Amino acid sequence: MSSSQQMPGLELPCLAFHCDRSTALISMHDHKRIAAAGDDILGLRNKAICPTAKGLLLVRDPDSMATYLLNPKNNGKVDLPPLTEVDDIVLIDGHCLLSDEPVVGPHSVVLLVEASENTFIWYCHPGDDQWSKYEYDIGSHVLPYPGDEEDQVEKEVICSIAAYQGKFYFNARAAELHVLDFSSHAIQPVLSAIDIDDTVADDGSYGFDEEHSLIFLVESGGELYMVRLLFVSTDEEDAWDEIGKVSVHRMDFAGRRWCNVHDLGGSSFLLSRFYFGASCLGAEHGLLPDHVYFVCEKTSSLQVFNVQEGTYDLHKFNEDPVVDKAFWLLPSKECIRDAYD
Asked: Per its UniProt record, what Pfam families does this chain match (predicted)?
């Protein structure tokens, strides 16, 4: 079931600063507050929230455990099975993705990837009675310890991930791209990997060197992109403090290589922590076309990168108290209400 209620005056996209289950909204037009944390114009007070790149929010009520997808523009909802076995912090810090748009078909997948060192994913289809839990195995690596201490083996985890043409692509590297597929008739999701040509062209048109960077995957205009944020500092403690430059690559599936690009087809890419990456038509929604926006709650800042010119601007926000999470509220297609009416 779904419901909708028009919410006039909420211009999307906008930034949401979430703290202690309350949410303050920041306009992208003038970088001022649309609503203070206590206003609750979205009805999200005391809720656990996880955004998606398609504009819908995964929301859970901690009292009733009712779980649903919410369209923040019109308050349209799609009920999901109660997500009862996931702690609030796991839900808030996780990454939620939707396989299709609209998202109400029986074969559409709602996917929740646990963050940090966890190797669990949760998934369901609209209309299911419960969520399915799956522990994945995509290999491991050795962490060398100094002196006489024994080296530690650590499991690989899903980091950057994006939905593209009904599948989920994740952990892009110079020579490999992983795939998570729910489209087969297998009981469990199918994991695979694509070999990528890691040759770096002399003219820089394709390939890249694996420098110290943070990688995001973004679906935009029917293409799969990789955004690499290259840090000024290589110190892990300072890694989020300042990003020196951005490079953007488009996946050429026929040639199996990452092609360097210097425009985003007029779109704007919106990034935030926990490997969230989304695309929005820039000029249509008051953003700068061919720019990458990255928000970091640790520094209460927004960095805006011009992909064409290779320049960037830094905007500081004065948010108090310190927020737990900053994320994007995005425009979403009017697909929920129509499919359920």
From this structure: Beta-prop_KIB1-4
Q: What is the mean pLDDT of residues 273-290?
A: 90
Number of helices followed by number of strands (H, E) in the chain: 2, 27
Q: What is the pLDDT of residues 179-212, one digit of tens each?
A: 999 987 778 899 999 999 999 998 888 888 777 7
Kind and range of the H or E element at 339? helix 336-340
Q: Hey, what's the torsion of the CAs at 337, 325, 271, 230, to 10 degrees?
A: -170
DSSP string, 210-245: --SEEEEEEEETTEEEEEEEEES---GGGTTT-EEE
CA distance 332 to 178: 27
92, containing H or E segment: helix 88-93
Beta partners for 328?
15
Nearest Cα neighbor of 248 from 261, 239, 229 is 261
What is the Cα–Cα distance from 125 to 327, expressed in whole angstroms? Answer: 24
Chain centroid to CA 271: how far?
A: 7
Record the pTM: 0.89
Q: How many residues does the structure list for the chain? A: 341
Q: What is the structure's pLDDT at 341?
A: 39
Alpha carbon 20 to its chain's center: 21
Of 1-5, 218-222, 283-287, minimum mean pLDDT range: 1-5
| DSSP of 18-74 | EETTEEEEEETTTS-EEE-TTT-TTS-TT-EEEE-TTS-EEEE-TTT--EEEE-TTT
Give the pairing of strands 267-272 and 291-296: parallel
**Cβ atoms < 10 Å from Cβ of 163:** 22
Residue tagged 């990528």 (tokens): 196
User: CB atoms < 10 A from the CB of 253, how many?
Assistant: 13
Give the 3-state secondary structure of residue 263. coil
Percentage of residues in the chain having pLDDT higher than 70: 84
Helix H or strand E encompassing 259: strand 257-261
Q: What percent of the chain has a predicted confidence (pLDDT) above 90?
A: 48
